[in-house]
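ok trying this again, last paste got cut off
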Amino acid sequence: MNKRKNISSIEVTKRLVSIIMPTYNRMSIIGKAIESVLRQTYQNWELIIVNDCSSDNTSAVVRKYGDKRITLIDIKKNLGSPGATRNIGIKKSRGEYIAYLDDDNTFRKNHIERLAEVLNRRSDIGLVYCSAELHFEDMEETLIRDVYFKKKLLLIGNYIDTSDVMHRRECLAKSGFWNESKDYEEDWELWKRMAAHYDFYHIKEVLTDYNFHSGTRTHELHSLQTPYESFKAVSDYLQHLLSMGQEETGPPQTAVDEEA
């Protein structure tokens, strides 16, 4: 059994993972996101950072790392579209697998290894995503986003965050790239298109830390005034999805079989 695991580990490390990170005026926090990539147990990655014409020193912060696996793309005119900046990064990337990290979130150290392992072992899976811990500004209490995959549930609402995802490059060729005309829920729109062609898989393990703060772009939270209101809204939304999933789509998915 250990021999099979070692062979799988060697095979998976051959595959380059491209991590796409759009950014805009995040000089004070982008370093944490970059450092979480540098700490990964899986080291065959490239990080493509697309700076959407920031007016602060975001680019200078990125350049100080000096890692040849990090590519910085400075856009001269602000696009204001998360889909457009991600597409630019994807077209510059070379990896067989594509992951995403928003500039205010962080990966746990085995994030890339665990997601790439699933795609390596399961040729029938096009997209894999993990669970995440949600942190709220000025609050000690956190939430765990841990919603298993069911296609019907994805039609009810989005429960897959961009920073939790890794998918095969071929998924974009068949489903299309990111929608550049949407300024919110562009991830949900892409997942639905991909789910029409590919199977998804959920790893029931917290591998991402997602941070809600005053600059968070989540559309549904724009009108909320306090961290507690944000916390309550997200908690209620997740509970709603979980209850709908149990009623409409049956039992949750099991973890990946080590022998798969």
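PB: full thing came through this time. The first helix runs from residue 2 to 12.
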